[in-house]
Amino acid sequence: MAEPRASTDQETAPLLRDPEAEGGQDYDGSEERDPTFLDRVTSVVQEPLTPLTKVLLVIALVFLLLSSVFIGLFAGAQHKLKEGGGGGGNRVTVTATTTATATSTDVSTTTVSVPLPAPTGPPEEKACFSSDCILLSANILSSLDTSYDPCENFYDFANGGWLANHPLPADKGNFGIFNALAQSNQQVIRQILESSEYSAILYPEESADKTLLKKLRGLYQSCMNEDQLNDIGPTPLIRLVETVQALYRGKTTIVDAAAKDDAEKERDGLTAAIAFLHSRGIDALFDFSIDGDVAVDPNFMTLWFSQPKLGLPAKEYYNEESIRELYNDVLERLLVTIAEEQEYSEGSSLSGASIGDRGVSELLLSEDKYKWWPPWPWPPWGGDGDDDGGDDDEDPEDKYERAHRLAKAVVDFEWKLANASLDLDILYQDPYATYNPVPLSNLTKTLPQICFEEYFATFTPRNFPERVIVTYPAYPVSLSDILNNTKSDVLEAYLVTRAALATASHLGMQTEAWQAVRSLDEELKGIKKGAVGDRSEYCASQVENALGYASGRYFVNETFGGESREKGTQVIQDIIEAFKKSLSEIEWMDEESAKAAAEKADALRIKVGFPLYPDTLSAASVAAYYSRVKISDDAFFDNLLSADANEEYWKWQKLGKQRNPNDWEMYASTVNAYYNPPGNEIVFPAGILQPPFFSEKWPAYLAYGAFGMVAAHELTHAFDSSGRLYNQDGKLEEWWTNTTSAGFQVKQDCIVKQYSAYTVDDGKGGKIHVNGNLTAGENIGDTGIIQAYRAWQAQYDSSKEYLLPGLNYTREQLFFIAFGQVWAQNIKPASAVQRVRTDPHSPNQYRVDGTVSNVPEFAEAFNCSARAKLNPPRAKQCILWS
């Protein structure tokens, strides 16, 4: 917009300046000067007035008066235009009364055409000045840092203010908009958990709701009672560890130990211990999941065998000496703690009942505790006579020496597992490489150290599997070889430390086990040593993770009313339509593939708000789902194990059945969304349909920029590097033509190259590159922002696109600002390194700058020059969808 003209008093200033005060020279510097206007007036006054002079003087006075009136009206019109009052006409009617002399008075009415200066853009529209609009505008403005050029560094331009105003909390390795909204959602859940009147007011009659709320509050209170947790100490962990030990050593009613040879005893013990850990959601040795058979029937739920999570987040950490030494120290501290606690409690009995292992706890109740583990001689079915801790020496190791040796051996064992595992970029990005179906008997022969029939019996699936899909066939082969070359006491130490690492955070903070595991977390995430966050925030998150369908029911009731679901769904559908329209314009996609892509987009199942699980979100349905969960007000550790066991139980009940179309993989309060390829569904929990992502009251340029980005991202996943390999029915097959697939590969290679050039600081003076192959699918998903932009423009209606006060930006600019601002995040270098190594999503800065650099509409909106960093030449841009 052009700046308004100066007011009349400003304009008169130059006319009143004193030339002598400015040096007594004319503009050309000459000494001589013409008579001034004052000189001429004085001369005329001193002369006698003729009749003609009198007439001319009256006319001159009238002219001067009219001129001053016109100038004032002109300035007023400009002021109104600036303030939003506008001024559509250019004709002004003026009534002027002038008194020239004592002898004559003239009254005249004059209609004059006054040309107003034209604005450089459209006339300014009236902005919304409601309290909601003012607050929304203030939030946007406060997040900006206009010292940055948006064409050079859009991420910091959009988020610099927010980043400065939200320093990273000492107890966190990263914190951003997603985290802030998650905290806000948890605050809603906390109010429900802490309000004694909530159930009485809203659910006075429904017994199912009272049951659910009792479990939710019981879990929360057991977490909040820190004094009691510290008083209990490590006892719950010791019970868990001793259950694992007893099972590993053959203390089970499932098999007759006397009738088996040593190899069978070892196999059965390892099988029972692994099955028990897996039944509590604790990773060890391998992983089983239940999902569709994507190459045969995507809706038939079958068994998938894969590699487990490791004690360290990624295999690269095992090659870093400082991290490996710290990890070794943490494991040693855990082993010493367990040994000392078992010594102190000598003579008492195992308490497996609270852990609730089916068919095992009764046996364990009658067993005496071991003074420390492993007992001598070791292994109990016979040693190999070496001097590595396996024979009955006259001078055996003490618990400290043994813990030191075993910790080092466990780290080496895990290092071997890491090296045997498939790289994450292949595991996440190549569905053909990870689809390897075999008869279950093949897996049994490949990995004879596990008795899979007994393993599956632990989970009591309704349908016994005959076929298994192996994600990486080389892994079970390597695992078998590793197990053959691992001492029994080392393997037991591995199982024990896996249990401790997974559950020590459930203990009181004064316990050595909690502090040991916390020290590892602090180093890997860059958290300030000893800094602990708000306990209620932690406990609310634990409730949400453990009983998320139940807490989600009440969260939805509190936050997801009005037309949120309908309007959120409309945004998603608009983006799908925009995507379908763009297909005919994509230069690398032929007509046949474009038609098939449109059919897949039409076939997408859209889920918004909350899960209908199992059939509806009724209290009775959710209560039935959690009926197996046992909650005690004074047993936080066991409460979480019970909840984990419930999740594993329901997971295994899906085996051999058809996919339930109502199933969700996220809870209603989750701040996230996902695309499920075998189900061909995009899912958006109510948790993310909240400000700053979405509000049904927002102007569309904000809703489509923020939540529209989320919707477009998930839609684009259906056509990314891996999603494109699933057809509209979720079946794994090449449904694009070879020409289209080859064209897409060129674009994918461009994206991989672009993001592989980005780096993060490691906090030690070095740089670590983003893994462009690992992040390819997510980076391609982010390119979907263009579909959100097109969808917004297609529905554009200026009457609904009201402006916000104080924002001197176009709607197009505000669309991209809304997109950029949801990615604001402060992050420690250690957490950034961990993310680059493990997360298929790129760092947030590159999710913004890397994305808009491939969107010409962004450069157009911000008038970026051809030399701007975020406006590279078209030939260097990775543009997929045009």
TrEMBL record:
GO molecular-function terms, A-Z: metal ion binding; metalloendopeptidase activity
A GO BP annotation: protein processing
Domain Peptidase M13 N-terminal residue range list: 150-611
Residues that span the membrane, as ranges: 55-75
Gene Ontology cellular component terms for the protein in this record: plasma membrane
Region (Disordered) location: 1-34
Keywords, alphabetical: Hydrolase, Membrane, Metal-binding, Metalloprotease, Protease, Transmembrane, Transmembrane helix, Zinc
Entry protein name: Metalloprotease
